[in-house]
Amino acid sequence: MKSSAIRQNEARPPLDTVDAYRLEEQVGYILRQVSQRHAVIFSGRIPDALTATQFAALAKLREFGPCSQNRLGRMTAMDAATIKGVTDRLIQRGLVEARIDPEDSRRRVVVPTPEGLACIRAAIPVAFDITEETLAPLTPVEREQLLDLLKKLR
After folding, report:
1. Cα separation of 29 and 85, whole Å?
2. Partner residues linked to 68 by β-bridges
3. Residue among 132, 69, 76 nearest 104 (CA)
4. Which H helix or E strand runs over 133?
């Protein structure tokens, strides 16, 4: 029986493959660069100093209406700790309220305030412009292909 150290060595790529590794050609590195570029565009253009996570939460609340914090986290791909922090900050800004769920008094429901709805209504047209600027280097066909391929990776 081989030791785990020997098995690990067998799993390593040959030295010539290691020498050929270029960070700037790796998917994670490229995705991070693109994400950083988009984040700069987003933060420079989105109104009311909304963060990307705050924007996502407000957009889903506008789309689906009041919901539990847990459900809002699932709809926006945020874990429990992140969505709690996001909703707490939105509450502090007066953009959402937390109410007791009328159907289950143990659960908290996140409700957009009139100010929150006005904020997201003003932000959505800008969000379309942000997407346009982010994808500007691509042709319409390339944009569709990129989005389709990225959706396969999620």
Report:
1. 28
2. 109
3. 69
4. helix 114-135
134 phi/psi in degrees, rounded to 5:
-60, -40
Summarised one tens digit per residue, pLDDT across range 50-102 is 999 999 999 999 999 999 999 999 999 999 999 999 999 999 999 999 999 88
pLDDT surpassing 80 at residue 3 = no
Q: Which two tokens stand for residue 101?
A: 């769920």
CA atoms within 13 A on the CB side of 114: 0
State pLDDT tens for residues 123-153: 999 999 999 999 999 999 999 999 999 999 9
DSSP helix, strand, coil percent of the chain (3-state; round to 5): 70, 10, 20
Spell out the residues 6+ positions from residue 151 whose beta carbon is closer than 8 angstroms to its own.
Answer: none
What is the torsion angle, in degrees rounded to the nearest 10, for the CA atoms of residue 106, residue 83, residue 144 and residue 25?
-140
52 Cβ contact partners less than 8 Å away, ≥ 6 residues apart: 39, 42
Q: How many Cβ atoms from other residues are within 10 Å of residue 61's Cβ?
A: 25
